[in-house]
Write a structure and sequence with these properties.
Six copies of one chain form a homohexamer.
Chain A (H helix, E strand, L loop, with lengths): L12 H14 L6 H6 L3 H15 L6 H15 L2 H13 L4 H23 L10
């Protein structure tokens, strides 16, 4: 049988601590399903959230760009849940419908030319080192 | 035997027309290997370049963001040539080393959590519609 | 229209022979949907079951390890059916919830670092031959 | 260290028997590297060759079509060796340069639209059942 | 929230022009969902349909072969919508159940041996250049 | 141009601290190339090593099983460097040639049946929940 999500009310103190940090950081009333399932592995939950929080924080790249990159990878991997959640995340961070359309167009072209390059067995140009 | 690249000097007028447009658009002295191999299919060369030119033009997303998205897809697909050429393209468009590092970190995390989501069989939250 | 599963009652003698061997080998009352669909290609059914039976038999690796490896591949490929069936198979072979959590963590890290390695274009160390 | 290929001269009788059948079936003087490496697992060599021989034999699909499908998959998976060997195989079976160009174009478009479909989260039409 | 499909009745003249060409070219009463979603990006709709129409037209390869190659890629990428739509497309172009079974068998073998080749790190034979 | 590896002699104190911990934990005289490239992103280096060290530590699964799972994922993703390094890692942890052969056979079968399942659009059995 499939695992069940672990809701806040049923979570251990260790899990609640991570849930609280996610809610505080993202300013949301509840965590999304991914975290409620990952809570079956409390150490993994803590580690994954810690890494994600660090990686997605504003830095040399802004949060919107990071969300769009996350979405580009999720589309390329065909992960339905990830596409839904990161489309929502990117919109929340400011992605307009026009930006979404261009993002998909770039992802589509990249997937096409990646395979053309491999099919034609193109050697790397000296200039690309 | 593997195909050989078609250089400008040996190209048909139809292929040269595309090569000329690539060089003009990108302001480069020669086209990179991808185009020299794709030139074995002149119709495909023309169509692919036409699409790429349209998709990568500045719009709702700027060229640097587009190049970084292209690179994120190429890394996820493990296409060596594409990683080399789009790393060069993104740098030319302004990607700093710090931006590259953060881009890779996001791509890495996305690939990790995409698979965690699928392994835990997480259902889509109602809020993500 | 999508194919329909072929149940034992409607199966040809050739298909029934394979179904009987699956039920006997796995000690189950009925075969799962995969085999009922593959039965549309009787030669493919026979060949695939023959290979799977041989590959998954105890050998230098025990059945639990084999089921977990199968699950790791299925998660990496994002195959929903395969994840469900091999999670069930691994549990039946003895995978505890703690083992599942660690398995997912390893699969997640491997998917992350696989892409980091490719993005950074890391050359193979001489020591790895 | 990487494994070494097992040449005919150094092969066990069981491996030689498979090598002989490959050479006879394909009418070639020696087997290609894939088989010489797989020979490290004699049971796997025998099983894989047996399956491949059966799957690639002429049937409802002709050998050229089968080789081109094999190549389409290999390109989509980015397997360099497989692309090289099945391009050679398809050419031997009659693939012209024009056919190769169209094959690559279809593979490229399929990879592009596969991702667009997933990015736009397109639901399956009732007509496709 | 997920995007909604854009039906003909609600489409802009630019989108209707593409829809009309799809219906005429394929001789169908309505376009399938993919186009109704892609219509959110009118330029992308026009470009993608233009490329697809050109790529899938009869040429050195016949339409059935092209549809089967499209399906082989879609299966390898695990795109559910694409598998459903191109299975329908291939059947309409003449794929029998026996051809479908052999197609799947080739796709399965290719996915298996692609990974064996990579796992054994097989170097490319000189003959494959 | 491609990045250059950062050797211990040229590394910052922050990077050296991570390198030292890797060498101590694995009891090796130097770190492998992956870490020398990732050192271009000191925060990413520290985070990735911290996660990997935690994930690969003995727990409910032993180190050999974890290395073989890592290898199974790397083969499925076609990451050459990762295949080389984790084959070495698995051997060091006790993987025999027979175990490697069976591991590859399972990875191959899983990649084959994953795609067959998707191509036949097999619905999940009620029993698998």
């Amino acid at each position: 049988m499939s695992l069940k999500p672990i809701d806040y009310a049923d979570a251990s103190p260790q899990v609640r601590e991570v849930f609280d940090d996610i809610k505080r950081t993202r300013n949301v009333p509840d965590v999304n399903n991914f975290w409620k399932y990952l809570a079956h592995d409390p150490a993994g939950l803590k580690r994954t959230w810690g890494s994600l929080k660090e990686v997605m924080a504003p830095g040399a790249l802004d949060p919107l760009t990071k969300e769009m990159i996350y979405l580009a990878v999720s589309v390329t991997n065909g992960c339905g849940y990830c596409i839904a959640s990161h489309t929502a995340g990117a919109r929340k961070a400011g992605m307009s419908e026009a930006m979404f359309g261009e993002l998909m167009a770039v992802v589509g072209m990249a997937n096409e030319t990646n395979r053309l390059v491999q099919g034609y067995r193109v050697p790397i140009d000296a200039a690309f080192g």
